[in-house]
Amino acid sequence: MIPIVQDPVDHLLEIGLKDLWYPICPSSYIQEKPVSLRRLGRKLAFWRDQSGKVHALEDRCPHRGAPLSQGVILGDRLSCPYHGVEVRCDGVVTRVPGSPGCKLEGTHATFNFHVEERAGAVWLYNSREPVDTPPPLVLPEQLTDDETYSHFLCYAEWKGDYRYVLDNVMDPMHGTFLHKQSHSMAEGDSQAKFGVRPTDTGFVFEKEGQRNVNFDWTEWADTGVHWMRLEIPYPKTGGPGGNFGIVGSYTPISPTLSCAFHWRVRKLPKGWERDTWRFLYKNRLEARHWHVLEQDRVLIENMEPDANQHENLYQHDLGIVRLRRHMKGLAQQQLAAQEKKAA
């Protein structure tokens, strides 16, 4: 049998581009015990130290490869359950109980990652090589300006390549058809022409001549983390705050599983209007929003893994083509830089 060799560009995109921040899980996933999560082509161990700060290491002891996540938390270190080897959050082995003073002690033997908590999620810097100081985690204002915006994090794991999730969000026209029974996406023309508008951090793919009617535009941005943003007009019965915004960011788990982070956002100052919307959301609107997301999930999970190899695209798909080309270009740049460094 002739072995199948995967295109290195496709493989890099499949497991996630390097030197970027990615959302990993809701903050509530990591509590008093270490947690093992498979993300970005790796198995990772997460834990909190005595101050509550989250740390991350590759979930593999440098001694025999046992899962560090099965061990004991010792502040900023994990003690491997197999032979007690202690690994600090910076990847340095601090103690080998079975062989004190051996050459493993003091070495940077485990890959470590920088982690931050923002907007109710744990974010990890997916560096190609360990770095002392990562670039800042820059998120859109909807997730950082708490005085102006209020949001809820909705997290789910979808059975499918995360790139299909990106394609779904970069396709405003599907809202008119797939979500036509939604209380917020029943309006608008079922035919439209789209254009691409560049921004300082990416681009906007938008319907021409229609705004604030349906799911009319999607923004894609790269601020050291890839995120997407859109707005859906809301009727007055949806409460105060104007259009309903969604900020999304997506992380690969495996070729057949992905993390989908969606923050539902309203522009509301702190006060009674924000309190009213948050109460209304939790008691009436949240179930409707999950229903819409479920429509997306079911569709994506029932697509064949090679569905994108059998497409016949048209004008409504210009945004998808633009994003795919850009992601492929980023992957090619990273691989070229890696080859140059190796040479």
TrEMBL record:
Pfam families: Rieske, VanA_C. Keywords: 2Fe-2S, Dioxygenase, Iron, Iron-sulfur, Metal-binding, Oxidoreductase. PROSITE patterns: RIESKE. GO terms for molecular function: dioxygenase activity. It comes from the Bacteria. InterPro entries: Cholesterol_7-desaturase (IPR050584), Rieske_2Fe-2S (IPR017941), Rieske_2Fe-2S_sf (IPR036922), VanA_C_cat (IPR044043). Residues 21-124 form the Rieske domain. Its EC number is 1.14.13.-. It is an enzyme of class 1 (oxidoreductase). This is Aromatic ring-hydroxylating dioxygenase subunit alpha.
